[in-house]
Amino acid sequence: MTTNVYEGLFILDSDLYARNPDEVAGQIDRFINDYEGEVLVSRLWEERKLAYPIKGHKRGTYWLAYFKLDASKVKDLNRQYQISDSVIRFLFVKVDPRLVETLVEHAKAGPIRPIMDVPAESEQPVEVVEVSGESNEEDSENP
């Protein structure tokens, strides 16, 4: 059988994840390993408000995983996540073999967060200077 690399994006129940993060996150890897897959990367992406409620949940914890799995076992793994209480929604995408190394390395690097550490009170006012090639009549009158 053929072994492919898949990207799995999971939306986890934020309440369950907050109470027991190791158990909930470990379940993702454990299911893959149960079906003789190999987890390449498995990490927290972020927690955020959902665009619309899913199964009564308004918030979700996003989890990203890259894994190798025999193509014939994807359907069984899919079913395992469907019946899991901690997984609200998930999606598997087969990764092009030419992109595997790049995607896995990027995922290992972790999230890129915007720099927002500077408090608003300490911001210095910025002077805006317009530069134009045309001379202004007011400028020529006032030396």
Structural shape: globular
Helix content: 25-40%
What is the SS-derived class? alpha+beta
Largest sheet: 4 strands, antiparallel
Oligomer: single chain
What distance lies between the first and last C-alpha atoms, to the nearest angstrom? 83 Å
> What portion of residues belong to β-strands?
25-35%
| Strand order in space, largest sheet | 2-3-1-4
Summarize the structure.
The chain has 143 residues and is an alpha+beta fold. 31% of the residues lie in helices and 35% in strands.
Care to describe what's here?
The chain is of the alpha+beta class and 143 residues long. The chain has helices spanning 14-19, 21-34, 74-82, 100-109, 137-141, and strands at 3-13, 38-54, 57-70, 87-94. The protein has a single domain, classed as Alpha-Beta Plaits, CATH 3.30.70.60. 31% of the residues lie in helices and 35% in strands. The longest helix is centred in the N-terminal third of the chain and has 14 residues, at 21-34.
